[in-house]
Structures are given as C-alpha cells and as structure tokens.
Amino acid sequence: MNRSLSILRPVAAVIMLSLCSGCMMIDLSSLGGTPQLTETVVQEDPGWFVTDKILMVDISGVILRESDGGFLSENKSCTPEYIRGVFDKALRDPDIRGILLRIDSPGGSTVATEIISQEILRFRKRRSIPVYAHITGTGASGAYHIACTSDKIYAQPAGLVGSIGVIMALPQVKKLAEKIGYDQIVIKSGKMKDIGNIFRAMTDEEKKLFQALIDEFYGKFLDHIVAQRDSFKEVKDIKALADGRIYSADQAKANGLIDEVSDLDAAIAGLQEKAGVTGDLVTYSYRPSAQPNIYSSIGSPAGPTLLGNSVPTQGAMLKTGFYYLWAPGL
Q1: Is residue 152 annotated as part of the catalytic site, yes or no?
Q2: pTM above 0.70, yes or no
Q3: Which homologous superfamily is 21-167+233-325 in?
C-alpha cells in the first residue's frame, strides 16, 4: 500500500465522521508534528510600543502525572509536562516580567503536585521575577501546595482554600464478589505483596503501613508550607489548621493561609505593581480561546486532541495511590 495513502486514511475517516455528526470539533494540528505552545494576549496594555508581559498560568482540574482523558476527550487537568513546557518557554522570553498562577483545582496526585511545585521553584531560582497566585475558585490540598510557591496568594471572596492533607481510598468489593460467586487465588512472594487487594479485608498491619506512608507525605506537605509561607515559622503553627478542613477566603486570610481576598483584576494589578510594569497579560496554550479575556479557559493544557469535550468526574479515573486532594465524593 502507498505510504502516503496509509497516513491519509485515518485523517479522512476523522473528517468524514465530523461531517456526519455536524457538531464535532476537530483539531488536526497535532498530526503535523509535536504540538507547540502558542502565546495569546488576554488583556492588552493600552500604551504604545509595549513589550513587557505578565504570564498567567492555569492550575486547573485534577492534578495528575499524565492526561486524565482518552483519545476522544479533552484533558482539563494540570500535568507536570504542561507546566514544564510553560516555564521553559517563559525562561526564553525576557519580556515576561511576572507570573500569575490562576488556580481552580481540588488538588491531585502527590507526585504530580510535588513535581509542579519544584518546577515553579526551579523557575524562580533562574528568573528573579515576582510570582503571585490567585485562587479563582478552589485552591485545595495539592493546589494549595502549588500556591505556596508564590510570593503572594490572593483568593476570590467566594473561593475555597485548604484541605491540607493526604488521602488514599480503596474500594472494598469482598461482599459483592461473594454474592456473584467471584473468587481469586493470589500467589505472592511476601505477605505484603498484595497489600490493598480490594477482594479481601485489610489487616491491621497493612493499615498501619499505609498510615505510616500517609503520615510521611503529610509531614512533607507541612514542611513545604513552612518553608514557603512567612506566616508559619514552625510545623506546629500550621498543623492545627491542617486537619483536612476547607476554609472560606476570609477564614483563610485570618489564619495566614493566604494574603489577600480580592478578585482576579486586583491580583493582576498587584502583580504589575510588584513587577514595576503594566504590559500585556498573556497565556500559553495548545489551543487558545477564540475570544480571550482574563476569565477565558486556556483550552487543553496537555495538548490538542482530535475529538470531543468530555471530562471524567473527579474521582472516577484516579489510579490507586496517594493524593493531596479534596475529594468529598470519592
């Protein structure tokens, strides 16, 4: 078969499927090679010959190591891959004079959260520009971990902050398996090799092992907050607040978790003042908004997909593991 025809056939199939449906959005940009981040101006500086820019970075959706969507879905989660790409691009642009983290996330994977926080701190060591955070909706657990990497944290008056802690949830289907007559034989090298097996009851020893890991990750979370937030000098200063509860923006400010309660415009103005510039407000995206403004979604952070706009529910696609996550419906 002709090689060019074999490449074009799946593309033609996608186009035909779109024409038949009449309402399906298609983005074929990724078929031509590696997708590239595109800069979009979401708020223009009214002045003339302005080159300075403020970069707004979205921390939105469940924070995961990789895309939470399949081939037919548009990923809305925040991944280390996307963040690394954004900050590497920002490093190459000397006109970027400040970073605003726009946060609306319940948190996510402990590993992904730590990597993203490290990426931001790595950037800050290499570029001496201010980094502010604005919790536009929810800044919970891992999202708050990331917010703490900034110089100053703002929160929308109706925003939610907190849920500091670690969670792991395992379903128990032992009784269901017994009802339907399902059984399994497990052959293992050690008594802990199938720890977390959902088809049997967890032993006390196994619970203690998991709790020890949870406590270790929790301690690292608290250490991170103390290292990044001047309002907390020691772990004991934050521990009483870090029992997993959620705070309103006003409560969070009163307890030193954030610095200001304000809307996004005020956070942008505060960052511009700190940076000593006005400049355009820009975002980086693989699929920019058609009519961008400061409240526009930046599109699909992890890159363009071919079809659809389906996002899985918060807990439905989570893999077994440990999470800095507020997940009341998990």
Answers
A1: no
A2: yes
A3: 2-enoyl-CoA Hydratase; Chain A, domain 1 (3.90.226.10)
